[in-house]
Amino acid sequence: MTRSKYLFPLLGAVLALAGISAAAAAPPQDVPLMIRNQAFQPRTLTIPAGRTVKIVVTNRDVAPAEFESNDFNREVVIPGQSAVPVYVGPLKPGKYGFFNDFHPENTGTLLVAPERR
Length: 117
Hints:
Blueprint (H helix, E strand, L loop, with lengths): L1 H24 L3 E8 L2 E3 L2 E5 L4 E7 L5 E5 L4 E5 L3 E7 L5 E7 L2 E11 L4
Parallel strand pairs: 1-4, 3-9
Antiparallel strand pairs: 1-2, 4-7, 5-6, 5-8, 8-9
């Protein structure tokens, strides 16, 4: 009787840890982001907290653009007429800014939503 008293909570903890590691090992979620006329479309992206996300930045313009963020430390040149994956995270919940460094007036926001349980 005493053994089962400790076995079931221990088994639950092991299963919970396995679930956490499986979520962390899951492949990154793809999030599309387009650049047209050197501006981001959409201007706001929402991603889950605590996960790595692959933002696929597609530049529809002929001229290159630069996806940059001081908030989450990324700087990637996106050649004209091409798509480049940008891996982000895991991040804590909040708002993070990004911009096109070749046209800094063109900005966007990355909203990191708390993980649902």
